[in-house]
Design goal:
The chain has eight helices and no strands. It is mainly α.
Length: 190
């Protein structure tokens, strides 16, 4: 762990990548984990909820070759910013959908998956390029740890937010988080 932190101190681009990965995963897990609850409260049958989640998973993986190509073609940071924009659109679209708005939630969840994919693909490429070869395993391990801790924390926080407030408030919280991250990625230079 100490090796990873030392490598990150010398690589601002790696820190940016790590933040983008963590925020992308937190946004995705928090919205995705509460969507079935939101739709169930609206009376959607399980098969409809299954289709919505299938569209989300397709958004996560179907476009990944294109997103990887785009990250190589236009750069890591522009694809990270695109990912934050997609996550913002997803949070707004899903968060403003009522419990009966299955079509709107479906579109939001598909965008959520694509935004996550942009964050993970471009962020992982940027992270590995930013640190020396000998530090990559330690930094990647730290990235995986951070991503999973943030995802678990996001799911728990999402449950609390939806339980105490609403799914719409969760959408707002996620929208603010990805907007701040997108602005930071835009303003920060490597």
């Amino acid at each position: 762990l100490r090796t990873a932190w030392q490598a990150l101190r010398r690589a601002p681009a790696a820190v940016r990548a790590l933040v983008a990965i963590a925020v992308s995963h937190t946004a995705m897990v928090s919205v995705m984990s509460m969507t079935p609850v939101h739709l169930d409260h609206g009376g959607s049958p399980n098969w409809v909820i299954g289709i919505v989640l299938s569209l989300h998973i397709a958004g996560m993986y179907v476009l990944s070759p294109l997103i990887g190509w785009l990250a190589d073609r236009i750069g890591r940071v522009p694809v990270l910013r695109l990912g934050m924009g997609l996550l913002l659109a997803a949070a707004v679209l899903a968060g403003t959908a009522g419990p009966h708005g299955v079509t709107q939630v479906s579109a939001g969840l598909a965008l959520l998956g694509a935004g996550w994919s942009c964050g993970l693909i471009a962020g992982s490429a940027m992270l590995s390029e930013a640190v020396p070869l000998e530090h990559r395993p330690a930094v990647q391990g730290l990235s995986d740890l951070l991503m999973n801790v943030c995802g678990a924390t996001g799911a728990v926080a999402a449950g609390v937010i939806v339980g105490a407030l609403s799914y719409g408030v969760l959408g707002t919280v996620v929208a603010v988080m990805v907007t701040i991250t997108g602005a930071w990625l835009t303003l920060k230079r490597t």
